[in-house]
Specification:
With 118 residues, this protein is α+β, with helices and mostly antiparallel strands. It has 2 domains: 64 residues, no CATH class; 30 residues. It contains 5 helices and 5 strands. The strands form 2 sheets. A 3-stranded antiparallel beta sheet has the order 1-3-2. Strands 4-5 form a two-stranded antiparallel sheet. The protein is elongated. The mean pLDDT is 78.
């Protein structure tokens, strides 16, 4: 006589080893755009699964992405206008352009020593 599998036995065989979450829910939770999620997928940073025309994010790949991002793996220097602004701020706040007044432990921009006073 042949034994029939129970529903739990069938679920164990077919259940995914990792969790899935609707891409729309991930987008809303993280406050990112559809395009950002697509770029992450295109670059291979996360995995997407298409089920009946709806995309789901693999939660294991999302956890790996979060760990990599927290480690600074995706960081880069600012470019364009933001890069120019960042460079200017660094130059203005460099130690050669600052004077430390020890009385109140504040750091102030060095005053222009070439000013003509009348």
């Amino acid at each position: 006589m042949q034994r029939h599998e129970t529903q739990n036995e069938i679920r164990k065989k077919t259940a995914p080893s990792v969790g899935l979450r609707a891409s729309r829910a991930v987008i809303l939770d993280r406050g990112i755009s559809d395009t950002t999620l697509w770029r992450w997928y295109r670059r291979g940073w996360i995995k997407l699964v298409n089920i009946c025309g709806k995309n789901y994010v693999d939660l294991e790949s999302l956890a790996v992405f979060d760990r990599r991002a927290a480690a600074g793996e995706f960081s880069k220097k600012p470019s364009g206008a933001a890069g120019a602004s960042h460079k200017t701020r660094l130059e203005q706040n460099s130690p050669k352009n600052l004077t430390i007044r020890w009385g109140n432990n504040n750091i102030y921009p060095r005053e222009n020593e070439n000013k003509n006073t009348k």
